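Z., the sequence and structure:
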Amino acid sequence: MTPPSSFSSSPKMAPDLEAHSSSHLRNTTLKSLSWSSLSASVPSPNSSQPKTILTSSTGLVKAGEILAIMGPSGSGKTTLLNLLSRRTTPSPTPILLNGSPLPLQQFQSVTRFVEQTDSLIGALTVRETLHFASRLSSASIAKRERRQRVEGLLESFGLMEQRDVVVGTATKKGLSGGQKRRLGVAKEVITGPGVVFLDEPTSGLDARGGWEVVRYLKRIARENNLIIVASIHQPSTATFNLFDKLLLLSEGKTHYFGPVEGLSEYYEGQMGMALPWHVNPAEWLLEQVNIDYAEDKELARGRLEEMQLGWERSELKRRLDEDVAAAEKGGDKLVLGDDETKEKNPGMASVVMTLVHRSFIKSYRDVVAYGIRLAMYTGLAIMMGTVWLRLPATQDSIIPFTNSIFYGSAFLSFMAVAYCPAYLEDYNQYTKEKRNGLYGATAMTLSNFLVGTPYLFLISVVFSVISYWLSNFQPTAKAFFTWVFWLFLDLLAAEGLVVFMTSLFPSFVISLALVAFANGLWMSVDGFMVPPGTLNVFWKYVFHYWDYQKYVFENMMINEFSERVYSCAETADGCHCMWQTDLADQCLIRGQGVLDQYGYKPGYMGKDVGIMTAIIVGYRIAGWLVLKLKK
């Protein structure tokens, strides 16, 4: 590995910034981010008194600066970052931009949060990722300007050579970890924020990768006059030296806030603690404020409290308080008018169409989305058609026909569980983009339905073309298209169930288990296993009547048997019919006789379509409510 010193910040960076300046993304409004006496606590499981996790934090970051929030595990880094970005319950102390508080919606319009885990769609290229992020945040800018923004950020983040490379899917290798992290930041920067918050942007990267990410962060902060605040765990020396300011925390209390280059002066001059040579200053600082591994806990805690009190009494702390107070009283209040925020708020139709376009690209590039399902359903159709192969219109085929109808409808919906992983990626993307104020539950629900519907119809047609004619169901065009129609409704309902369950429990294992269980329940009470007249009262009235598989199975049975007759068995003793109908004297069975065993009668298709539509819409509304209510 290249030693840290060999990739330290280059003195030629300033001219380079000018060469790649993207003035259309430059922040000209926000001058500072400040907070004073910010505290937080959580309920304690072992005490009636709440546990304090952050105490009286004060800070000021100016435009063009990058701040590192550092401290050992449990020091309050993430809590402070979430409070500053207003992603958690707000503190009584407001977060100030240009010395003034903003309503949450306006605050979200000028800030962005980059998660520790990458919020990227693997099937998109680097250029497409930035393009769609821009479209979601600003619908009114010209195509040429949008293209300039994308190209400018590709240059600024060193991703020009990878611009047409996909991020990476389960079946196709894409970007490296460091490139993904840079793209994740660029994806938020292109939306035109003034403040960017990052949760451990170097996590999971080696020293070189971490340095690259922070170098580009510093570059973009200077280039676009942004305020960047990042929590960071244990950076290398070269990475640490790239930050302009440091906020050092331990047990929720501040030990230092100021310029990184002023660390030596503060600790040697005011604390009497010399920074050792040839030692990573970040590691040394973390050792001083971490008492978890100290042999003498009492001695270590006393020393830690002395260091914290030293900060409270320091000249640097006094100047910080004065600077924060001056920023608040400076009179440079931030007021965002309609004209300034208009670009950041595209209409619902624009957002939905952008999401549909993005999801459509994902759907045909990523085989996990629909490709695997189409192949799986094709294989299922071939298996079904060859097991129930060319059944003749005789009484011996009636039970196989019935079994085949149940198998085709029930297992088609059951295998919708394969959509869980693809929807989980969409859900995770949604939660992160929702927190950044790009769109909400309505746009997500509508776009997901619009993208999936054509694919489900295609699956229904492919499955039917193969299985229907191989099994020799009623050989008429009307019967065939009725079969396709009910399979299509079956898949729409099944996918709605997947969306609802996975939104409620966004875990692959849990959602898979719940969807499988629900489909098993619907299969049990849909009328095939136990005829509706025999089904006990509880299952009949609690589950049977809103079981979507019930209406699919019933109408597919009517489609097959209501207008078809079957020959009885002729033996030396005469004609033997398993079902007695008015055609028994002709040694035939009228299909309605089979339906009478289940209590099914034709003529109610319109009502059943209405019920199915209500079930499909109901699942989508339930999924929408889950997305809407989740924070």
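The domain at 4-342 is CATH 3.40.50.300 (Rossmann fold). Confidence is low (pLDDT under 50) at residues 1-21, 337-342.

Let me know what you think.
H.
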